[in-house]
Amino acid sequence: MKLAFTASARPEAQEALRRLRHVYGESGEADADVIIVLGGDGHMLETLRKRLKDKKPVYGMNRGTVGFLMNDFNEDALPERLARVESVRVRPLVARCETASGVVIEERAFNEVSLLRQTAQSAKLRILVDGAERMAELLCDGVMVATPAGSTAYNFSAHGPILPIDSRLLALTPISAFRPRRWRGALLPQRAHVRIEVTEPERRSVSAAADNRETRDVVAVDIVEDSGEALTLLFDQGHALDERILREQFAV
User: Fold this and answer.
1) In this structure, what are the phi and psi dihedrals at residue 78, rounded to the nearest 5 degrees?
2) Which of 31, 33, 41, 130 is catalytic?
3) N or C: which end of the chain has fewer CB within 10 A?
4) Could you tell me which residues come within 8 angstroms of residue 205 by beta carbon, excluding any fewer than 6 positions away?
């Protein structure tokens, strides 16, 4: 099995990179069968974006902070572990961001697309789903659309629902909603087209983030799932993403 390694800038990730290259050697990414990712979830998300062209499977080992998308770090018997992995398919969201200056920026996100206020003023947003207005005015710190893979990340911290990895749903979750105060969000089918418009961009500026890539001063963001761009994440037996998501729902 041909391996290629990538690591974040964290010292522990760089040290692991040196040791694993020494023990197992390395093929170039073009020839590799599996991409080994060393770091945390942030580096994993960057790696997944880079794999959209070649669709190579990705196996992560945690040398970062959270590591929900990663396996535990263990440098022993790596080829043998890779021969027994469980695979999970993840699909990105496409965020088409229109800015106040008229520029359109397209980004992809495997966890969530979030809109956040840029100033002390609350954001004032309008939400449409499949072309139909569902909320004329949401006054809030922000709102996000999260995938099943990302539902245990920022979405869960904002009191959004945890989604089973194979649920084919998206979570639409407000962040500190002020009006309507009691709105807790919605579950949408994965095929939904969500459009979020900033209704007072001059007074209440808003940024959009696709995972960890930010676009400032947006006036509207269109969000859809890119169902044709599924990637494969590899996990050690008994520690696959569906099991981790299930455990999170029973954590106290």
Assistant:
1) -60, -45
2) 41
3) C
4) 100, 117, 118, 119, 121, 198, 216, 217
The Cα 221–Cα 106 span in angstroms is 9
Mean pLDDT, consecutive 10-residue segments, the chain of 252 residues?
96 97 93 96 95 95 89 94 94 97 97 97 97 98 96 94 92 97 95 97 97 96 93 88 80 70
Token pair in block for residue 139: 């006054």
- What amino acid occupies position 173? T
**pLDDT at 42 (0 to 100):** 93
What is the pLDDT at residue 108? 96
Tell me if the pTM is above 0.85.
yes
3-state secondary structure labels for all residues of the chain: CCEEEEECCCHHHHHHHHHHHHHHCCCCCCCCCEEEEEECHHHHHHHHHHCCCCCCCEEEEECCCCCCCCECCCCCCHHHHHCCCEEEEECCEEEEEEECCCCEEEEEECCEEEEEECCCCCEEEEEEECCEEEEEEEEECEEEEECCCCCCCHHHHCCCCCCCCCCCEEEEEEECCCECCCCCCEEEECCCCEEEEECCCCCCCEEEEECCEEECCEEEEEEEECCCCCEEEEECCCCCHHHHHHHHCCCC
41 is known as an active-site residue: yes
Rounded CA separation 68/227 (Å): 23
* Domains of the chain, CATH where assigned: 3-90+230-248 (3.40.50.10330), 93-225 (2.60.200.30)
161 by Cβ neighbours in 10 Å (0-12 / 13-18 / 19+) ranks as: middle
